[in-house]
Amino acid sequence: MCGIVGAIARRNVAPILLQGLERLEYRGYDSAGVALVSDGRLSRIVSTGRVAELRERAAAATSELGIAHTRWATHGVPSERNAHPHMSSEHVAVVHNGIIENYEELRVNLTAAGYVFTSDTDTEVIAHLIHSHYARGNGLLAATQAALAELIGAYAIGVVAADQPDLLICARRGSPLLLGIGEGEHFIASDVSALLPVTQRVVYLEEGDVAEISAAGYRLFDTAGNPVIRPVQVSQLNDASVSLNGYRHYMQKEIHEQPEALANTLESVCNSQSLVPGIFGAEAAAAFAEVDGILILACGTSHHAGMVARYWLEEIAGIPCSVEIASEYRYRISVANPRTLIVTISQSGETADTLAALNYAKSLGHQHTLAICNVPESAIIRQSKLRLLTRAGPEIGVASTKAFTTQLAALFLLTLVLAKQCGKLDAAQEQRHLHDLRHLPSAVQAVLKLEPEIAKLAEQFVNKHHALFLGRGLHYPIALEGALKLKEISYIHAEAYPAGELKHGPLALVDKEMPVIAVAPNDALLEKLKSNLQEVKARGGELYVFADANTRFHSGDGFHVMQMPEHAGYLSPILHTIPLQLLAYYVALQKGTDVDKPRNLAKSVTVE
Ligand code: G6P
User: Fold this and answer.
1) 76, 82 Cβ separation under 8 angstroms
2) Is the pTM here over 0.85, yes or no?
């Protein structure tokens, strides 16, 4: 989604801004731009192509102060006129992430005051509004604060003025923004990865904060305008963790990083002899003792992780669990039970709908909140009482892979801890589960060996327009995740169904042109699944079955079997995810799509 970079220094910042934008490309965007201040003038350079094109256009530019942006269109089509930065009277320039809800009303007022709008964006009102206060004699900080007081909605902004070569203003409410601290130079960014080549020392702005930044220093103010001090943190990320390391795409690299990511996520548990609630935070034991139900809130792939967890939590821990799409829950009138544990799952920890759902749950009286998240400094982590960090490392590919499997591992730990607390897990069972968890990274490694076979199989999907994924029980959400991966990056329409539901509709779609992919673990539902697959075969459907050892499936006419290792019990969904990720990757690769940056999608969805 949209990305912001800004810099103020005693050297040319144009290369820093462009490099920062390149490092934010993974978030997804459709235009990019930069505004530079030099010699009392503001120059705006934009492009609707890749950042590389913007780099060519800005090759000759030099400046010691500038702001830059990658835009993911919300208001107005992707075009040069709608690209950020937006300017007012050639005097003030603004970059903005988020959505201003009252922009239409403000636009009417500003037009009446004589401002001429040159874009369809909500952002342009911010530029004119700041300018209108600035023109009345306020300083740039005061003008920005006055403008922000008139905005309704979400924003992270960077602001510069043509006649203020040593002043960069930024602010956030509802969208992430941080300040980077260098030696005699400062930076702003929506995502720390943009700044790693210049600094790892960062200050995360809190909700409503405004910063006044020069090359030499900075001052922070809270919503009320009072000076505040926020801690300087050293980011745990480094440059190596966001490079390709010889892989062709980040998605391929991240698929292969899963054994290590899982080992890291499970490290503290696997090195100990027993499970303790403390892994979720000091207050976890007391909170879990009060809990009589779970409500999981998440979006996209993270929602699928929650759906798997529901099977585990009810079956192993005996705790009622429901799972809701965050964007639905936040607007639904629901019956709140304060003894319910609210679990949010999010790779980024910044997804606007998940964050809003969490706050909505709190407003309904829910006290117990737990975040499962991959980004330690994120808003969702900060706003939850309990947390478990997945330690997948930065995930750059838009299609989530290692974040998903580490979320599953974290949710399995939650299940075991709750089961133990409820007296549903005896010592022998606990040790058996710990043993299985220790073995998980090497089990995933073994499944990754299927890669060449799956790359070959993918050739059969390249010319297809539709695909149907089937699974049952714990593996139905895995079928959903397989379908999501395929549609996200190969643009093949894919749907997933619980296999038992086939005859209630989707069977009508089955013919030779509709590949049917089945997730076939050797579990209690295997024979039921086999009957469902016969229904497909009898209608001439082409079946691709990912089958555990000893499931007695045999390849034959219209029946392709990919052999998985032995059944992994409750952890089987994690193993069965891997071949579906690889299938989507190789189909996309052969179709020649932009695997890591699929069209129209964004990595971190910070707007509603
Ligand atoms: C976007 C990403 C998905 C992700 C979803 C939720 O749509 O492209 O990969 O699953 O957001 O993101 P979160 O960071 O909250 O897990």
Assistant:
1) yes
2) no
Strand ranges of the sheet holding 559-563, from the earlier edge strand across to the other edge: 493-498, 466-471, 515-520, 542-547, 559-563
281 and 304 co-located in one domain: yes
Helix (H, G, I), strand (E, B) or coil at 533: helix
Whether residue 549 sits in one domain with residue 458 = yes
State the residue range of the domain holding 93.
3-246
Residue 602 lies in a domain: no
Q: How far is the CA of 242 from the centre of ligand 1 (A)?
A: 18
How far the first Cα of the chain sits from its last, in Å, is 11
Q: Across the chain, which distance is largest between two alpha carbons, in Å? A: 80
d(C-alpha 406, C-alpha 436), whole Å: 15
Active site residues: 2, 603
Cβ contact 467:506 at 8 Å = no
Ligand 1 binding residues, C-beta < 6 A:
299-302, 346-348, 351, 354, 398, 400, 601, 603-605
517 lies in some domain: yes
Q: How far is the CA of 462 from the centre of ligand 1 (A)?
A: 25
145-156: b (≥16 Cβ within 10 Å) or e: bbbbebbebbbb
Element at 300 (helix H, strand E): helix 300-312
Mutate which of 348, 372, 485 for ligand 1 pocket (most atoms within 8 A of beta carbon): 348
| Among 281, 291, 454, residue whose Cα is nearest residue 382 | 281
Could you tell me if 582 and 455 lie in one domain?
yes
ω into 565 cis (within 30 of 0): no
Mean pLDDT per 10-residue run, the chain (608 residues)? 92 97 85 96 93 93 96 84 94 93 94 95 96 96 97 93 97 90 96 92 93 97 95 82 85 96 88 88 94 97 98 97 97 94 96 95 96 89 94 92 98 97 94 94 95 96 95 97 97 95 89 93 93 88 94 90 94 98 98 91 80
- Asked if the structure places residue 34 within a domain, the reply is yes
Same domain, residue pair 198 and 261: no
Q: Which atom of ligand 1 is nearest to the CA of 28?
A: 8
Residue 187 lies in a domain: yes
> How far is the C-alpha of 119 from the C-alpha of 68, rounded, in Å?
17
Contacts of 25 (CB under 8 A, 6+ apart): 3, 50, 51, 70, 597
Q: How many C-alpha atoms does 116 have within 13 Å on its Cβ side?
A: 3
Asked whether residue 315 falls in the same domain as residue 277, the answer is yes
Residue 73: give its domain's CATH number: 3.60.20.10
Task: Round to whole Å and give the CA distance between 132 and 116.
Answer: 12
**38 and 134 co-located in one domain:** yes
Q: Tell me how crowded residue 537 is: count the other CB atoms within 10 A of its CB.
A: 16
Same domain, 437 and 516: no
Virtual torsion, Cα 51, 52, 57, 63, nearest 10 deg? 70
What angle do the packed helices 123-134 and 103-112 form, to 10 degrees? 40
